[in-house]
Amino acid sequence: MKKNKRIGVLIDELTGNPSKLYDSKHFCEKFDIAKSSLSEDIKIANEIFSENGSGHIESISGVGGGIKFIPGISDSDIVNLQNILIQKLSDPSRILGGGFLYTADIMYDSRFVRDMARIFADRFSKLNANYVVTVETKGIPLAAQVAFMLNLPLVVIRREAMYSEGSTVSINYFSGSTQGIAKMSIAKRAVRPDTEAIVIDDFMKGGGSIQGVKNILSEFEIQVVGIGVALEAREPEKKKIKNYNSILIIDEIDEENRAIKICPSVNL
Amino acid sequence: MKKNKRIGVLIDELTGNPSKLYDSKHFCEKFDIAKSSLSEDIKIANEIFSENGSGHIESISGVGGGIKFIPGISDSDIVNLQNILIQKLSDPSRILGGGFLYTADIMYDSRFVRDMARIFADRFSKLNANYVVTVETKGIPLAAQVAFMLNLPLVVIRREAMYSEGSTVSINYFSGSTQGIAKMSIAKRAVRPDTEAIVIDDFMKGGGSIQGVKNILSEFEIQVVGIGVALEAREPEKKKIKNYNSILIIDEIDEENRAIKICPSVNL
Q1: Is the CB of residue A59 less than 8 Å from the CB of residue A38?
Q2: What is the ipTM of this complex?
Q3: Structural domains of chain B sorted by starting position, each given as residue range(s) with its CATH number in brackets
Q4: Intra-chain end-to-end CA distance of chain A, in Å
Q5: Which of B233, B237, B150 is nearest to B198 (CA)?
Q6: CB A238 within 8 A of CB A219
Q7: What confidence tier does B24 reach under pLDDT thresholds 50, 70, 90?
Q8: How far does A241 lie from chain B, in Å, by closest CA?
Q9: Do A102 and B147 touch (CB under 8 A)?
């Protein structure tokens, strides 16, 4: 196989299987080339990823080592994403009252979701977590995309225990958004004890819902090692959780003057 | 830029933006090459996609034309996927009683979801639909991946009208799975009238739920032009809907003998 074709095959296969560890033998045999030639191909592929700002190849040496592609995003693409989202989210017709904004179109837009997922994949790839966890419904596409990029199973916590989930564990928690007691439920089969999870959600106000996720996961001795939310509300300043990454902050929703203020998050 | 690097950049950009139409000027300017050289590069990229079984490049000629990458999957990869899913789903510990199987781990596994999505993207790319629609919750990752591959917005129909969805339209329908009246609700902002939709779901028994989706979409004069379900139940033989694609058929769940029979779908 010619060099230009090899690099194309390498990129197609790596980007189609993010975070999958490939034994270097895999490509040496596929291309029928020596390890030194493969190293050169990998170097070029890595240059391409770096120039396109789409991620990087990680090389793990030693026994059980190999290469894997970690999706990423350039700083300028993050700023571009934040700017376009700020513009879109500032449309006053999104104001629903009670401090709510209509955001479903953003959270269900596959290109925005992909770029947001790239940010979290980049931030959380080194954590070596076992799961990506979210609470239904609006954060599922984002969490699923992060899970795909990190090659991890997705766990979806339901609001109600569903029959099709088998045995479940449920908790009640205080939701600041709705100012009431809410419930969440997780399938026992979905998780193994003594593991680690990344939590992804579309929106965080006071952090009660994510604190609930931490609590329900702690029933399985699962530790939360990373938290990523797309949108964070400025108020309340004091959140129930610490150490989270967010992409944008909803600073103010002025219902009277129909004005919305969104800014890039300082917690990215 | 050297040829081997150009092809790598081309593949990285096309696979990262499936179904996006690129004016050929985009790559000619990026690479600083003539259209004839780009055509050669595209030919090689297309050969790579074809050999890897990952999709193909479609060339649209004339004004407003260009190239786009359509994800796909080889016939042998479909058979492989079906075989591994049959093996996984035949595990008797999945039997929940009442004709239910635990399938959440499959529907939340990013690699299985990606391969299933490739099948539907391949089948439905020529329909030129405006939306990919699903009903919460378990089919969302699959529907989101199909939406990503077809570069379409995802629409998630909720079970309950949520405040954060703004104004909604709701219907009641008869659900064969639960043998009762169920409700679904769609945000008015999520769709435009007189458009076309592809419906994706994780499971279909009698088709009542998908018939409900068709009904609620018809309130907006939206026509369903394609239907894809991951798993279909053999019974009832007579479905409420016609012309759908499914990947696997659950032939029989024998609760007494703890045996499950799954087979590849004839409706793919």
Answers
A1: no
A2: 0.96
A3: 3-71 (1.10.10.10), 75-264 (3.40.50.2020)
A4: 43
A5: B150
A6: no
A7: confident
A8: 23
A9: no
